[in-house]
Amino acid sequence: MSNDVEGEETGGEELLPIAQSPQPTTVHQSSPGAGKRAHQVTDQSTPRMIDLRLLPAAVATWAATWWATAHPVAWPAIVLCALAALSIAASYAWNRRHALPPRHALTPPRSVRLAATLLLATTACALAVASAAGQSSLLDPARSDESPVHVRVRLLRDPTPASSGFSRRSRARVRILAVEVGQRWLTSNATALVSAPSWRDAARGDVYELEGSLDTTFAAEPPSVGAIRARSAQLIERPGGSDAWRRDTHRAFAAACQPLPRDARGLVPGMAIGDDRLVPSDLADAMTATSLTHLTAVSGSHIVIILATLNLLLPARKPLRVGATILVLATIVILVGPEASVLRSVCVASVASLGLVLGREGQAIAALCSVVTATLLIDPWASRSYGFALSALAALAVVGPAAALARGAKRRVRGDTRIGKVLRRLAELVCVPALAELFTAPLIVSLSGTVPVWGIAANVAAEPAVPVATLAGLSGALLAPISPPTSSACARVASWATGWIADCARFFAALPGSRTQVPGGVGTVLSLYVCVGVVWASWRAWQHWVRPLVDEAGEL
Q1: Which end of the chain has fewer CB atoms within 10 angstroms, the N or the C?
Q2: Exposed, middle or buried by CB within 10 Å (0-12, 13-18, 19+), for 408?
């Protein structure tokens, strides 16, 4: 657990933008005739507690699931880990009843034992779940060397048209439900990348029966069995209810976006409902080079914008706001789909809403760690997903160091002058993309071998247009089945904002050094981070331990 300090603004007439050191709590009351000139100076030294107790458990769960999905662990090792957790928990329970902890201990022994219990328990669960998933993938009937296949699949995403205009085939990631072996249908739980003809009307959730050939050398990382090139695709089931509403909404909004310019036809649905299938290839490359691809994946920033707008529109009544928040979050999950980034953002926002109901301040890092741990235990294959890793690291950067730096800027920069307000806002705009870039740089280098040098500048430049594109696009999507003209108007407003974002992406991608190659790859980046960490730890050790001793020796 670490401490940070969050202060409040102070009033005054002749104050510089840079704040002075925190002062004790004092209240200056002006004369009754002063009116609005009365001001109050509040205490800026109240500590803000940041709960990091769940972070080791989340890291251990991630490491255990990543390892055990590829190398299943024997059950004796898992049982031993579980027994260790139970023994430490029993020691904690006995100590709580029969012993008193030291009153002035910085870290109480019982807290350490409770953390160790949680760490071992989550590790044991992660090893058990991931080992079972790994063994199931190895024995899956769909994992065979036979080229002709006859399978039943459920679409996990809407089909993407082929990049070439001369091909009528579409691609989609599917979940294999059953595979025909001989004269029997065997249940399967594997995934595959399918290319099939005449899939223009297909949508997420549809069940098809496919016949084709299996290529086990492409896109065959577990739990995927490879790529299936289907000769025929027959629809056998189309879900109703919320799936039907999502399908109709997507199609109606796509029709509303058809009159828009080429870039907007892909960006507006992408930023509103995560449907980026029509983003032009040149624009997609430019957004990749400038770290703007996260804008077309509905994630934490979109959720924050939507909930902040909701709180501005609704009256300050806690039950009403909480109910509206739950309704909006559920609508987003249904409309966008249960993507990893969407579920992570929605779950963290749900934890914050629960804290509001209970009257307790939320801990964003603890909520994020809880969500990551639960996600990995439910789907251990997410530990091997680059998308989930990028989403989790970026979220950790935003709710962790970026939030701390933003609070530090509020504490040190006065907010009662125009210059101070500008500096505060600029610090918030730069902190979020800069820290997210630093946290995700090793993964980006391992994927592409390049560093998006202009990513921070591109994100800062595109930031003003993101709320407009998100809110107008989402409004247009929700209104598309009800009022197509109103949906078209909202899409047109969103296209103005996405036009600015596309221009920013292309401008910064064209600058020199936008795709700088990193010599040595990810090892160079990690070595640099280790060096920076050693320097920072040395400086902190000097400040806390060595410098006081030097000062005392100088006084003697």
Answers
A1: C
A2: middle
